[in-house]
Batch of 3 targets.
Target 1
Amino acid sequence: MNSFKHMHDWRENIDRFFGESFWGEFDSILKPNIPQVNIFRKDYEILCVINIPGIRQIKQIDCSVDGYNLHIKGEIYIKSSGYELVQEEIIQGSFNRTIELPYKCRDDKVSARYEHGLVYIHLYKNVHESNKSTSIKIKEGEK
């Protein structure tokens, strides 16, 4: 028996017993955050490194910063036409994620680049009050 079919049947039985809203409380535990993010900081700077494989054009990623939040959305798509998916560990599909930053960041001093499947976003601590949102342009390649 196909293990995916077995898992689907198991979930349907749980839904019938506990109700469909049962899984909603566990979604944040069961679903990994995509894209994956590492955040580094020093003094008045933050470096966010975001794992986004399979990007063909930088235009596929939309990124902005407003205060304490970095917003990133796009789609991870791995081309495999003519093949049947047997095992999936690289999560694919649309993503829309808001990343909470350790402190409020400036919207006028931001740089970003995409290199080898990673987006590097360099932010600076905001020592002045500003609540506007700024879109981040991502460049290709090295610094």
Target 2
Amino acid sequence: MVELLKVIIWPLTLLIIVFKFKTFFGSALNRMQSLDASATGISMTFQEKIEEAKTLLNKSKGALQNRAKMSVSESNDSAYKMVLDVKASLLDFLSEKARSKGIKPEKYNPKSLSTHLAEIGLFTLQQQKAINTVFDLANSASPSITEDQAQIVEDLYDSIK
């Protein structure tokens, strides 16, 4: 009996965990566009965030049309580097906004800082959603990101400023 228990304890534990968190796993699987398991690790891309970014961009198109749109630089920078640069620029932008109101940005993570700045009226709810979406996309980006995907992230960032 003890030998049988030793054999089934881990599969049983795994089943209990899966059933306990089935809604979490189900929603994650629904959002997942692809899963790539290789020697370098596991990489997931979430199409939902790209779609959310497109929706936010469509909502702010009027503001973008009033602004002179900057073209993508024709340098040899990769799309991945472009996304990382956008993330760094957004962090600087948030920090500058926070400091202008006497808030120490280093006390917050980027998402909670954007929430706090929205609460005090520096950002609209739509801008806050766009900020969080840019961070989510930048954090989940991989070196294999396409130019089109990177351009969406950059366009969304431009709509925030």
Target 3
Amino acid sequence: MAGALLLALLVPAVFWSGIVTGMAGKIIVASLVLLAATALMAAGAVGGIRRLVMAGSVLFGVAILILLWQTIGTLLDQSLFFLIAGAVLLAVASGARRRSRD
């Protein structure tokens, strides 16, 4: 939970630094949001708090949409992105489900 909070607090710092105007800064912000979502899901799964897992899952989906929005390319590139993102999301959800059963 502390990791998710720390990562979330880094997002405004990136905005204030001025890096966010370039493509690299936008990807850094989306990556921080993605890592914060993953940390929320992990904290919820370890602590057995389903609301944290759900909040992390929603934030994970938002991070994927942010990354798609920042991705400029062909329809094939976007399809590959969604294939990989979907596979990662299924793996995380499967791991969270296994942890919640234990």
